[in-house]
Each structure stands twice: as C-alpha cells, then as structure tokens.
Amino acid sequence: MRxxxxxxxxxxxxxxxxxxxxxxxxxxxxxxxxxxxxxxTLKMEIVPAFPQTEEELARPVxxxxxxxxxxxxxxxxxxxxxxQELGDKADAPDQRTKFFQAVSRYRAKLETxxxxxxxxxxxxxxxxxxxxxxxxxxxxxxxxxxxxxxxGLGSLLVxxxxxxxxxxxxxxxPELQGDLRAAARGPDPAMDGVDHLPHVCRIDxxxxxxxxxxxxxxPLAVRVALRDGLSRGIRVSRV
Length: 239
Hints:
2 domains, single chain, 3-stranded mixed beta sheet, 47% helix
C-alpha cells in the first residue's frame, strides 16, 4: 500500500482524539510519538502515513519506507494541484489518464521551480521532539515489554542531540534536557535478567562454537547493535 504525505496537524488531531478515547493503549501514544518524531526528523510539517479513516489510529510509516522526503512531498503536492484543477472529476474512473497527466505536468513544474514545503521553525522542531519523547515514554510506562517504544525514544534522543550540536539551543523543555545520548543507550537490561526482554528469535547455536554449551531451550540475553550506536537486549534460545 502506498503511503500518503499528510499534514502532520491533521494526523495529530485524529491520533490525539484516539488517545483520549483509549488512554490505556500504549499503541496510541506510540503512534503519537512517531508522528512528532517524523515531523522533527524530516523537518517538514507533512509526513508519510498509510490511509486511514477518522476513527482509526494513524499509521505513520516505518523509517525504511520514508524514501526521499522531498520527492514524496512534491509528488503529493502535484496530486493535490491536479485534484484542484480537475475538481470533482479527479477521481472519476474515466478521468484517471487525465488526472495522472496533470500530476506529471505539475511534478515537472515543481522540480523546475525547486519547490519545497516550508521548513518548520526551530521552536516548532523542539516542540515536536519534546512531544515525541513524552509520548514514547508514556507508551513505555503502559507497556514495558514492547521493544519498539524504547527504540523510538532512543533514536529520537540521538537525532535531537545531533541537531542541537549545530542549533545550540540552550533553553530546552524538560523532556530534552541532560545527556541525551547516554539516555538513549539506557541501562543494560541483560544485567537484570532476561524475563522482561522480547523473545524475538531462535538461533542454531550448534553452529556457533563459543555457544555450544548453552542448553536447548535455555534463554540467553544478547546485545544487538542498532543504528546511531544504540543497542538493545533481546532473548534468544537454542533450537
């Protein structure tokens, strides 16, 4: 399914409504955090998300499906302009060829003009980052076992720290204060046992000489390296 590039305020409005109606669902806060996260990392007020109804929880795309943000934003703007040109006929089956011809024409025009969506102010970016951090942390409070929540928070904190190395904003909201890179890495959960770690895979340890002594079915805590120098504990078991 192809994601749409949607004004983040519209998605935030629907997602906030969902969170208000389902305050105990961690997934709502995670989606809220992802939307603010994308707005911060892409530095745009439109973000990619899969189509939804007003009653559904927003589904912002995972990072590997973001693609080229500027190209995606231009494509969406070209489609919006084509719909404005054709009006109610834009989605008519017998007008699809005309619609896509208009999209192609507007896309070329936007590329020639080097069009780009307006960039958010530093204050807006900081607000998005702070709200993303708060939402990720709330999701972690509601569900401490889902590994996506701390990974989302860790990625946000590292990227904000990188951004602020250049922006040098001194007055930051509480959610973004302190050593963010250290906070992103967090404590080593493997030191506290493995019961709370996600059991994400099984490994054939018989083929790994250093680990042949591990008994079948015995949980093993390992560290997995992630992007930006982060790592997280997971559980594996021998087959």
